[in-house]
Structure formats: structure tokens, C-alpha cells
Amino acid sequence: MSPFNLKTISCVVVFLVALSGFAQQPNFDKWRAQFALGVNHPANSGFANNVEAKPVNFPTINLGVQRMITRQIGVRLEYGFNRFSNNDNSPEFKINYSRINALAVFDPLDYIKVLPEKLRLFFHGGPGLTFIKPLGNLTANKENYLNLNIGSQIHYDLSETVTVFTDLSYLLGISTSYDFDPALAGLGEFKGNLLTFTVGISISLTHCYYCNK
Predict the structure, then answer these.
(1) Max avg pLDDT among 5-19, 31-45, 197-211
(2) What is the pTM of this model?
(3) Residue 108 vs residue 176, higher pLDDT
(4) CA dist., res. 37 & res. 77, Å (int)
(5) Is the pLDDT of residue 203 over 90?
(6) Do 12 and 102 form a contact (C-beta atoms < 8 A)?
(7) pLDDT averaged over the chain?
(8) Does an H or E element contain 27, and which?
(9) 49, 80, 126, 170: which has the fewest C-beta neighbours closer than 10 Å?
């Protein structure tokens, strides 16, 4: 891994630790683990000319650890894995799209009074690093670049410690170069945006998620 990537990941970890340090009250020590599975839609503008992906691709897998610093504000460290492949009218390719993001989390419950008691809404956003790895004979086209993740989650309480949720996220790709390898006609390269939809489960690690409810 290049020094740039190591420096970026180190900054992400320091960012989370620094934000977590603001929490002083035991009631706000609210840790949760999340796992979600779903589908993804890569924007065709991120491919070379005459290259297209399927509109809906499986799988998308997200793993996250979240801490609520206050009742409304938290942070989440999230890893995501996505795979997408060529559409029927496109040259053949498969790409693994992996990412790691440091996300700020906002719970607007105190401002939105219309939701049923067992439903909760969260908004999230934050920077991250994307890892593109083509499969097959296209591995030379792997690359890394920054991304910005924005989205929302809707949670439904199954118990005091377990919720099921849906997550809709949009990943904006921030590549340093938008040129494609002419020797391979851009196959295996992706420098664009990704939309993901997942369904998952969230488990409390402290049994204190609604301490102040």
C-alpha cells in the first residue's frame, strides 16, 4: 500500500478517535455494530466509451461500527464491498469496488415528531478511500481514489438491543485522473459514482442505545 493510502487511513482513524473523545457522559457511550447486504448501481459516466455495467448488481456488503457521541450526533467507521459487471451490450469485465469511510451521523428524532415510536431515521456523510480492483486479465487497471459518502438509514426496533434497517447511500468518486488506458479500451477501470441500497441488522454493544429515551 502506498504512503498516500496509509496516511489517508491513519487520518480516518485519528478523526474517529478524536470525535469519540468528546463524549464524557456514560449515558452517551452508545456503540453499535452493523452488517448489511444489498445491491449497487454504478454510474455509466464512470466508464470508458462503449463500456457499461448492469444497472443493478449484487452483492453490496457493508460492515460498520458506530458510536453516538450525543443523542443526536455520532460517528461511524464503515467498510463496504461491491461487485459489478458488464451489461449485455458491453465488453466483458468484472470489478471489485471496496471502500472505507469515516462518517458523521445525525439523528433528527427530536426535530421530526411524526415517526412511529419504533422507527428511527439517521443521516450520514463523510470522506473515504475507494479501492478499484478489476478481475481476470484486467488487474493492471486497479487504482485508488477518494470518495464522499452521503446517505440515510431507517431503523426499526426489534428489541432494546437489535434493529433492522435499510441504507441508501451515494458514493461520489473523486479521482485524480479521468483518463482511461487506451491499450485496454478502459476495460476494468471505473472512475465514477456509485449508488447502493442495503438491508441490514444493527446490534448494540453497550445495551445503552436508548439510555436517554
Answers:
(1) 31-45
(2) 0.82
(3) 108
(4) 17
(5) yes
(6) yes
(7) 85
(8) none
(9) 49
Q: Which CATH number fits domain 3-204: 2.40.160.20, 3.90.1200.10, 3.40.50.12650, 3.40.980.10?
A: 2.40.160.20
Pairing of strands 30-42, 119-134: unpaired
Closest-CA residue to 101 (of 39, 203, 169): 169
d(CA 177, CA 183): 17
Q: Supply the Cα-derived Rg of the chain in whole angstroms.
A: 19
Three-state DSSP at 157 gives strand
Residue 155: partners with Cβ closer than 8 Å, 6 or more residues away: 119, 120, 121, 122, 163, 164, 165, 202
Comparing 1-15, 22-36, 72-86, 123-137, the range with the smallest average pLDDT is 1-15
Coil, strand, or helix at residue 136?
Answer: helix
Mean pLDDT of all residues in 29-41: 93
Q: How far apart are CA 123 and CA 104, in angstroms?
A: 8
Q: Name residue 11's amino acid.
A: C
Task: Judge whether 12 and 20 are in contact, CB under 8 Å.
Answer: no
Alpha carbons within 13 angstroms on the beta-carbon side of residue 167 total 30
3-state secondary structure of 207: coil
List of residues 6+ apart from 133 with CB closer than 8 A: 95, 96, 98, 139, 142
4-22: pLDDT as tens digits: 555 555 555 555 555 444 4
Reading the block at residue 56, the C-alpha cell is: 443493478
